[in-house]
Amino acid sequence: MYSEKLPPHDIDAEEAVIGSLLIDGTAIYRIATLLQSPDF
């Protein structure tokens, strides 16, 4: 059986960021340069 390895991820962190952006769409301009893939 073949199983593909998934990279580490944090669904809660992703949901928090997306939820925050839904509340304040302009927040993307403040956080876009701060967030990186390893954050999740």
UniProtKB/TrEMBL annotation:
Coiled coil: none annotated. SUPFAM superfamilies: N-terminal domain of DnaB helicase (SSF48024). The keyword DNA-binding applies. The keyword Disulfide bond does not apply. Residues 7-40 form the DNA helicase DnaB-like N-terminal domain. Pfam families: DnaB (PF00772). Keywords: DNA replication, DNA-binding. GO terms for molecular function: ATP binding; DNA binding; DNA helicase activity. One of its GO terms (biological process) is DNA replication. This is DNA helicase DnaB-like N-terminal domain-containing protein. It comes from marine sediment metagenome.
